[in-house]
Amino acid sequence: MSAVSPLAAAAPAARGVGPPLWLLLELTYRCPLHCVFCYNPTDFASTAAELPTAEWLRVLREARALGAVQLGLSGGEPLAREDLEEIVAEAHRLGFYINLITSGIGMTEARIGALKQAGLDHIQLSFQDSTREMNDFLSSTRTFDLKAKVAALIRAYDYPMVLNVVLHRHNIDHVGEILAMAERIGAQYVELANTQYYGWAWLNREELLPSRAQLERAEAVTRAFRERIGNKMQIYFVVPDYFETRPKACMSGLGSVFLAITPDGTALPCHAARMLPGLNLPNVLTSGVREIWYESSAFNRFRGEGWMKEPCVSCPERAKDFGGCRCQAYLLTGDADNADPVCELSPHHHLVTEAVARAEQAAQQPPRAAREHVLKFRDHRTSIPVTPETGARR
Amino acid sequence: MSEMPATAKLALAHGMRLQWEPAQDAHVLLYPEGMVKLNGSAGAIMSRCDGERTLAQIVADLERTFGATDLAGDVNAFVKFALEKRWLELRE
């Protein structure tokens, strides 16, 4: 159908840089959960103070003037900000479509009422698993019952019910139960997002990566469920890219459509880019959003193809996947300009297949009692610098 | 579209928002964590699906607005597609 051009497929014009259509504000790193797969930086405890309300409102106005229209409010747990309603109200006045990405912790009937009134469009609620026991274990909290109550509030306030569950070795075998839970609470959209290995998930990679057999079973269960439920529920199954032979078109290319602002005002071309060495990341406290998006060296660093090396630079697929993920290239190979090693054409692809092979072995013997000792739970008391290969060490 | 009753009114589906974006010079359809940029004809059709008008009324309005006569086939095809994608829904 020629009438549509999905955002994900919209490649940037050869020369012209399009607007930052998708704006993500990570309002705070504070979060009551301690999830082992969180993509937040592992040294988040050492970052500076959070932006005050007035600065967030200025960022919204400047980004909207450039053409930003999809707004994600995330964190950390965005409900930890007491000015969330004020931020939503200004975003709504400006014409953003506003997505709240939340664990549900901190949501009350009073707050959801105020957020609805302020113009919030959608709430994405995360669950860590289908049962109280595993949900609470994986987030290192007692939150399952509370999330179920928030799901009921979301329905009562006539929001589309969108669930997100991050999958990994310890819960991927429960996909059937997770989908049953989603059906029970009336979910319309379910995102089964296999863990992407950044931040805390990178530290825990050796404990989180599922085996290929686990993945195939989960896909089969999801297919069968889809056939039964029809279009009553949309299910997105995000495959872990370690099992692919071509890389994801990360962010449709850095600096193409996505702009994230972290709690201290640092502007990022992707969620995880803070780790990339040599990127002189701008901050909204010292630069305007227009200057950041169009002129900063950080946002221009990976635009176009000038930065690419072989095998990407001569690859016919470079305009399709943009060489994959820069952060993954850096984490696995130590050089952000390399091809994403998920690609089987990369000379470093063995680093991915070896990690998968170790996961196959580990899946044979999952001693549950041992898990708590090896998983590193996201915690403000620990501050762990991210370095390439940290996650590969046992 | 034999399954669509002549009296059914067309509306944006629950949770969908349609708006004109000057920066993209287009109507866009916004929904949870997603956006579709519509071309001119899709935007013209979708912006008339206000929950008040039937398909026939929308076709008549489009033909009047654009001075055309035979738009029913194209509009039908797009509306069928948009209903399948759950961008639009039928209201009685």
Summarize the structure.
Helix content of chain A is 35%, strand content 12%. With 394 residues, chain A is an alpha/beta fold. In chain A, a hairpin with a 5-residue loop joins β9 (258-261) and β10 (267-268).
Q: Any overview of this molecule?
A:
The complex is a heterodimer of chains A (394) and B (92). Chain A is α/β, with parallel strands linked by helices and 394 residues long. Chain A is 35% helix and 12% strand. Chain A has a nine-stranded mixed sheet, with helices on one face. Chain B has helices at residues 40-46, 55-66, 72-84; strands spanning 9-12, 17-21, 26-31, 34-38, 50-54, 88-91. The model of chain B has no long low-confidence stretch (mean pLDDT 91). In chain B, strand 3 (26-31) and strand 4 form a beta hairpin. Chain B is an alpha+beta fold and 92 residues long. In chain B, the strands form two sheets. In chain B, strands 5-1-6 form a three-stranded antiparallel sheet. In chain B, strands 2-3-4 form a three-stranded antiparallel sheet. Classes of the chains: A alpha/beta (394), B alpha+beta (92). At the A-B interface, strand 1 of A face strand 2, strand 3 and strand 4 of B.
Query: What is the mean predicted local confidence, pLDDT of chain A?
Result: 86
Strand content of chain A: 5-15%
Counting helices, strands and paired strands, the structural category of chain A is alpha/beta
Largest sheet data of chain A:
9 strands, mixed
Q: Report the oligomer.
A: heterodimer
The counted number of beta strands of chain A is: 10
Strand order of the largest sheet of chain B: 5-1-6
* Whole-angstrom Rg of chain A: 20 Å
Helix content of chain B: 25-40%
Shape of chain A: globular
Can you count the beta strands of chain B? 6
Report the uncertain regions of chain B.
none
Distance between the termini of chain B: 16 Å
Largest sheet of chain B: 3 strands, antiparallel
Number of helices of chain A: 15
Largest interface: A-B, 28 and 24 residues
Uncertain residue ranges of chain A: 1-15, 390-394
